[in-house]
Design goal:
The protein has helices at about 20-35, 65-70; strands spanning about 1-5, 40-45, 50-55. It is an alpha/beta fold and about 70 residues long. It has one domain (about 1-70). The termini are far apart.
Length: about 70
């Protein structure tokens, strides 16, 4: 099955230090691909999820709270 996923444009998939929607999309995309599905992801341009990606949102702006979350890695 060919499956398209759309991620919010503000953070890459997978995210750096933030575990919200982008982390779930990464887990879903990689699991579906491992199950043999053809997965296409529309996400921020600096995303590194190992599935086919289209476009990429140019000029992403990271909100201040997200920058703080990226610095809170354990």
């Amino acid at each position: 099955m060919r499956i398209g996923l759309i991620a919010p444009p503000s953070l890459p998939v997978p995210p750096l230090g933030y575990g919200g929607t982008e982390a779930m999309i990464h887990a879903l995309a990689t699991s579906l691909a491992a199950a043999g599905h053809s997965v296409v992801l529309a996400a921020a341009a600096d995303s590194t999820c190992p599935v086919e990606r289209i476009g990429g949102f140019a000029g992403r702006s990271v909100p201040p709270w997200a920058k703080q979350a990226q610095n809170c890695r354990t």
